[in-house]
UniProtKB/TrEMBL annotation:
Superkingdom, natural source: Eukaryota
Name of protein: CI-B8 domain-domain-containing protein
Cellular component aspect of the GO annotation: mitochondrion; ribonucleoprotein complex; ribosome
Entry keyword set: Coiled coil, Mitochondrion, Ribonucleoprotein, Ribosomal protein
Source organism per UniProt: Pseudomassariella vexata
Recorded coiled-coil stretches: 176-203
Annotated InterPro entries: Ribosomal_mL43/mS25/NADH_DH, Ribosomal_mS25/mL61, Thioredoxin-like_sf
GO MF terms, alphabetically ordered: structural constituent of ribosome
Amino acid sequence: MVNPGKRMHILKALLELRHGPGAAILPPEITRIHLDFALRWNDGHMGPRKFWKTCLPRLKFWNPAVPMLVNRSTNQTGPALMSIYFRQSAAKATKNLTPLVQQPHSSTTNECPAPPPEEEERVVTIDMKHQHSDAILTEFLQKTGATLVHPTPDEQMEMQQVEELQEKGAVDRAIVKKYLDEKRREEKLLLQARQEAEAIKLANQ
């Protein structure tokens, strides 16, 4: 049986993945998403980096069938672009189109730049450079028409319980730390007193 502490951490991780910035369901005409930005955060790449870290995992959780590729490079002065690929119309989304070419893997060495659209696709881009991750997400939601996912009443209750447990844990940790600090201080004073007594004993011999 999983202990309560471990269960809380698992539940917290799951709730954080399911809900928060980026928790949204994409419309069926979106075929893939491509992000292109630099490895480091400076020169305007902080927002794209944060979007990748915080929003993209939730988007992938809710849209597992949509390929989401990230291409990064050492060119800090280069662009930071998101490419969103759409089928030409929502009606075509339900047809058996020619399959897309084999999707490349994400890359940290600029090996997988955004590919050109397929015959049945169009591309919408977002300039992410020098933008806050919240602004990137807002523009992404506007351009994709994604539907936000909100917690159910049960999930809201679980989130509240996790928060309360975290607050209680912080209080408990503070109490334990204070106790241990006091115990160490007393042990240090006791050791010091023993050393002084031993020194006096040796001096009187």
